[in-house]
Design goal:
The structure is a homodimer. Helices cover about 30% and strands about 25% of the residues of chain A. Chain A has about 400 residues and is an alpha+beta fold. The first copy, chain A, has two domains: about 1-135 and about 175-210 and about 330-410, Zn peptidases (Aminopeptidase), CATH 3.40.630.10; about 210-325, Alpha-Beta Plaits, CATH 3.30.70.360. In chain A, strand 3 (about 45-50) and strand 4 form a beta hairpin. The longest helix of chain A has 22 residues, at about 390-410. The first copy, chain A, is globular. In chain A, about 55% of the residues are buried. At the A-B interface, strand 10, helix 7, strand 11, strand 12 and strand 13 of A face strand 10, helix 7, strand 11, strand 12 and strand 13 of B.
Chain lengths: ~400, ~400
């Protein structure tokens, strides 16, 4: 059953180069509609759309609270078929099973919009909106082509166009959102996107908390000059200090803490072989499971910038914070219930930290929320060859079914 | 006089953002035509165009040999008003003065095309063509938009279109060039584009040789992966080793030699904040006045790559040579004559090495060629605020005049 749903999703926007189904696009809409089609014959299940682009399949009416399962159907460019889709397909299966037994169960599926945040560099968009965690300024974000998120939201009929202030002439930031119902408890299944489960030989990972993510922009300002006639001691080369720091990033997480640190993007201007660069920048991302680990690495990065500065006289170095998502604990109640379900089914599970962000992290702000993983083959994700064992995919649906069945009985 | 010529050139394609007059463009053509206009009333001086886009203003006819002065009229984007233009304006003045005295003097001005090589990343284009130093494959070079140099040459009527091989279907590389005359001796005036003259308090720099330029591409191949879920020890991060090497470049020329080393361009793929890079590259350029200095730095760079490799397991590192222009001695005969002219005029000169490449470097392959500098204010060039003292600009024309006068008398 879960495989049928997954195949249906895969057929939307798939090619040899993988799945490309960006958030807040027509492709994402098509996938949401395909999910809603699972209940097209039900008179009680309603398709509810909100002001962020989320789609909810809700059994019954009213403010709830509901037992909710879900995930997302958007992807990165050339991504895989399971990231997000697994949790939605599993939720559909579980809700169908629950409704066969309890016609009036207060259960719902949440399909969160734009989890990947690829286009605007944000992420967890729809679930953050639901949790009241979208700042008023966020719709001012621009994509690579200079298109504003607010324009996309207005075009898709989700938000009104931003108006300009009469005094300043500038756009007035604004994001209006009212969650359509309350959540009694939330569970999400996801692929691990790493190798911890495979390496430990376990079939289920119970996420106790999701690591925090901090991003900074390292930036330098020097002066262009001729790469031949400017002696080394007279240069104000903006690239050398930035490159040197990027080369040393792995040292910042060595030994003392559990984090990972990455520079995925950097740039240099004017970018000509025989011109000394006057500008360089690098985006540094750090993830760690505790505030203490995060603070320690932030301190070390600051120190690295401070010691690099004096070695690059005449070059201005800056470390600008971009974002700071704090580590988030998941609901112990939901987690231990899923743990119990695994134990009863004879499935080996382990508790773990998620180094990737997931929608459950947003929901945890407003309701008890749990998150569990099944193993990713070779630990690969965000790639066309992302995959999981057939029996583990089925297991994800089974666990959600058992969990929802028990939660519903608790509420009824 | 020289200022009038310079003002005329400056008026072509100048704006607040400086001079943008790329090689092999209509703007360059306009500047060549403006230079030729200096002799529009002369019946003896002919405008000769060749198959590379160079323009020669030749007094008389036949294969020569001629006493030649020249430089270039193309610029980098947003460049200055003197780089190249000084040498052409000075040559025009000198030739006019010589012809006033010796109507039949075998003298000529060379205006070399596309010295900067900005569009196709080559350089000294026209003068290399004259010297037989353009390889048959060079017209296959592509600009940033994928336009081939061969297409530009064909469009401008300089070369025939490349034909495709009947067997392979591929373009057959081809560049046809015949120099229109022989050069008896060549002299070029240029701005220094550095601070050596100002720092030493001299008005003329006599270039004894031009430094060599070697370029390499450092390249790495790793594997993309999720920046959260991939532990540090399991990464095949392509950027960290490349950035680390770029950060260490200045150490490679420290102490032992006279060279300068620069990374002006680098890149990373896929270039997304939360994806571990699978590819990175950096262009490294080294300039030094002797083969020995060049070899020593090349050896150190190779060593740096060799010691960096083992610290980045699973990442393939390569050091690919792009180009190798060897240090070029200038004609001692021409240089000492210009030195003598300065001495007689009571102008302080100094012998020096040019760290920048100039057209005289190409001409030196086929004729005795000399090159001298006047000071650049604040050492600045390739920028809108590039400038020199008014009296030094005049001096450049005066020196060329005296040199040409003496050379012509030697030939006549």
């Amino acid at each position: 059953m879960i495989h049928q749903h997954l195949k249906k999703f895969k057929a939307i926007s798939a090619s040899k180069e993988g799945i490309t189904r960006l958030g807040l696009s027509d492709w994402e809409d098509k996938a949401h509609a395909a999910a809603a089609a699972a209940f097209s014959r039900s008179r009680r299940v309603k398709t509810v759309k909100d002001q962020a682009g989320n789609t909810f399949l809700v059994n019954g009416e009213g403010p709830g609270p509901y037992v909710v399962m879900g995930s997302h159907l958007d992807s990165v460019p050339n991504g895989g078929w399971l990231d997000g889709a697994l949790g939605v397909a599993g939720a559909l299966v579980a809700m169908q099973k629950v409704l066969q037994k309890h016609r009036r169960a207060p259960v719902a599926v949440a399909i969160w919009a734009d989890e990947e945040g690829y286009r605007f560099g944000n992420g967890l968009w729809g679930s953050r909106a639901f949790a009241g965690k979208v700042p008023q300024e966020e719709p001012l974000l621009l994509d690579r082509d200079g298109v504003m998120l607010a324009e996309v939201l207005a075009e898709r009929g989700l938000q009104k166009k931003l108006r300009r202030s009469r005094e300043t002439g500038e756009l007035v930031p604004r994001f209006v959102y009212k969650p359509p119902f309350e959540i009694a408890a939330y569970a999400e299944a996801h692929i691990e996107q790493g190798r911890q489960l495979i390496d430990a030989g376990k079939r289920v990972g119970l996420v106790t908390h999701v690591s925090g993510i901090r991003r900074w922009r390292l930036e330098s300002m020097g002066e262009t000059n001729h790469a031949g006639t400017t002696p080394m001691r007279e240069r104000r080369d903006a690239l050398v200090p930035i490159a040197g720091m990027v080369g040393r990033l792995p040292q910042l997480v060595r030994g003392v803490n559990n984090g990972v640190i990455t520079c995925g993007a950097m740039g240099v201007e004017p970018g000509v072989a025989n011109v000394i660069p006057n500008k360089a920048w690098a985006i540094v991302e750090h993830r760690a499971p505790t505030d203490r680990d995060q603070d320690e690495t932030a301190r070390r990065l600051k120190e690295l910038v401070a010691t690099t500065g004096p070695r690059a006289p005449g070059v201005g170095l800056e470390m600008l914070p971009i974002s700071n998502v704090r580590p988030m604990p998941m609901s112990e109640e939901v987690t231990s219930r899923i743990e119990e379900i695994c134990k009863k089914a004879g499935v080996e599970s382990m508790r773990m930290v998620s180094m990737a962000a997931h929608d459950a992290m947003s929901v945890a702000h407003v309701a008890p929320a749990g998150l569990f993983f099944i193993p990713s083959l070779r630990g690969i994700s965000h790639r066309p060859d992302e995959d999981s064992r057939r029996e583990d995919i089925k297991l994800a649906g089974d666990i959600l079914t058992r969990w929802a069945m028990a939660e519903v009985q608790r509420v009824l």
